[in-house]
Amino acid sequence: MASLRQRRLAGDVALNWLYQDRYLGWLALVFASDRPEEVDRQITHWLQALQQTTPEQQQHYYQLSRRRFQALSPLDQLRQRAFGFAPGAPPAGFADFCAALQAAPSVSLACQTVSPWEPVATQGFSLPLSRWRRRPESDPALAFAFYPQAAGDLVAKCPEKAAPLLHLPLPEEPPRLLLRPPFYCSPDQAEGLARGEQLRPLLAALRHAGGHGEWHLFDGSWQLTLQLPEPGRRPEAILQAILRQLALPVASLTPPPESIAIRHLMAQLPERLGTSGHQKGWLAALAGGSAEDAQWVARQLSLITAPVNPPMPAPAPCRRGVERLVYPGGDTALLVFIPLPDGASLAALRLLAQHCEPLFFQRLRVEQQIGYVVSCRYQRVADRDGLLMALQSPDRRAGELLRCGKDFLRQLAPMDEATFRPLQQRLAAQNRASRPPEARALSALRQEYGLPELTPQAVDALRVAEVADLAREMTRRRRRWQVLFTTGD
Fold it and tell me: Which segments constitute the Coenzyme PQQ synthesis protein F-like C-terminal lobe domain (predicted)?
């Protein structure tokens, strides 16, 4: 894929076993490309290059597949085992397997916007198909290479200075580095996607070196998580190249369209809550690893040209208002984000959301049958905590959906002690549950910068009157709400 992306022939690939038994297998390679003919020509060259890989290379990729499998959830691992897709024994006879793939009959299909030809009925669908007329091959074969031959010529420096780094010691946990923009300053979706494309080859190199990295959205904010290899295999050159990339500008990418209206609103909400201000720099926290690991990481972070863990100015107020977003389709969707008031208890908000969630669903989905998306829950979006109401209906207008949400909050009965105590115990149990190291690192950063974060002490100190006061204030101050909606065609 690195070779195809470099030539801008394809953006993504999926390899799927459509069917497999003892005698037969149907293998599908699915490429996301607007140049399918050129990609199709390279598949034979790729299989030929695969056939020439060494046993050491094959063993390396086998270990990568095992690590990927072990990172799956227990349910996904069970599903993979049930279908026979879990990694088995180390590869044997791989060259013969590649030769068999080249000799096997194949079919190439391209999905494009073209003038339809003959409609073909198959399995209940009518598909407009036209025969793919290939042009004579003219593109040179790509020089496919595999690790370690494909490893880049990265050169490591030896920094002497150290950047500020928040270290969270976790016994027996490998070091995991969390890097993210300052709070309330996350890039938009288009810029975040472009940054991910920029980091992709370096994160692949980190996987080959025994680590793991991911640039992804978490609660509406972009962040980079890096699991570093064991101390004897520290990838200085790769980590330094990643840090240098973070300082480079990126050209925005167009996000792919969402297929469901409410998801479209959710994708737009982080940008609608943010402000126009932007603070340069990066926040960094290390979870796990030794003090020596933390010192080594801090020295690497000194190569970042922007400030690391800079002081945070007072955040701007959360944006508010009512906005209609254009979305094709026949449904009406509504999203209401009610931010946590300044100085209010996050524990009270979390408990209030647990109380509202089943009641909201019962009234609007079961009794009033509003639609097929009915949700009221706690949500953190772009570093802001709040109560989120989400509704999608095929036959209700946006104003009616908003009125239903308002009526629910106004008519919410006061909470008594008998209702409060089980919810408090449940919240305390959730707070005590084990969390991934990167989540604990983010929590430590939030506490370091004075942002609301759930603590056992806050849950224990919570009282029912505090929850009732918060519910009244959030219901009454409707001008602080952020409301997004779409209307059907």
Answer: 351-433
Amino acid at 57: Q
CA nearest to 41, candidates 120, 113, 132, 123: 132
Q: How far is CA 455 from CA 81, 155, 377, 425, in A?
A: 39, 43, 19, 13
Measured between alpha carbons, how far is 161 from 303 in angstroms, rounded to an integer?
9
Cβ atoms < 10 Å from Cβ of 232: 6
DSSP state of 480: G
CB 175 within 8 A of CB 233: no
Give the pLDDT confidence of 294-318 residue by residue, as tens digits: 999 999 999 998 999 999 988 888 8
pLDDT surpasses 60 at 226: yes
Domain check: are 338 and 475 in the same one?
Answer: yes
With contact defined as beta carbons under 8 Å apart, do 334 and 482 qualify? Answer: no
Q: What is the CA radius of gyration of the chain?
A: 26
The answer to the question of residue 306 being in a domain is: no
The number of residues in the chain equals: 489
Q: Among 312, 249, 282, 311, which residue's Cα sits nearest to residue 181?
A: 282
47 in the same domain as 188: no
Distance of CA 298 to the CA centre of its chain: 26
Report the pLDDT value the prediction gives residue 138, as an integer from 0 to 100.
Answer: 65
State the total domains in the chain: 3
- The span from the CA of 322 to the CA of 455, in Å, is 33
Q: Look up residue 417 and give its amino acid.
A: E
Domain coverage including residue 220: 166-301
Average pLDDT over residues 343-366: 96
Distance CA 227, CA 249 (A): 25
Cis amide prior to 456 (ω within 30 degrees): no
pLDDT at residue 363 is higher than 70: yes
- Distant-in-sequence, close-in-space partners of 400: CB < 8 Å, separation ≥ 6: none
What lies within 8 Å, CB to CB, of 182 at 6+ separation is 279, 280, 281, 282, 283, 310, 312
Q: If you ran DSSP here, which 8-state letter would residue 65 be given?
A: H
Torsion angle, alpha carbons of 480, 484, 485, 486, to 10: 160
**362 occurs within a structural domain:** yes
Could you tell me the pLDDT band of residue 152, with boundaries at 50, 70 and 90?
low
Beta strand ranges found along 173-211 (DSSP E): 176-180
Q: How much is the pTM?
A: 0.86
Question: How far apart are the C-alpha atoms of 165 and 177, rounded to whole Å?
Answer: 10
**Helix residue ranges, H only, 211-277:** 236-246, 261-273
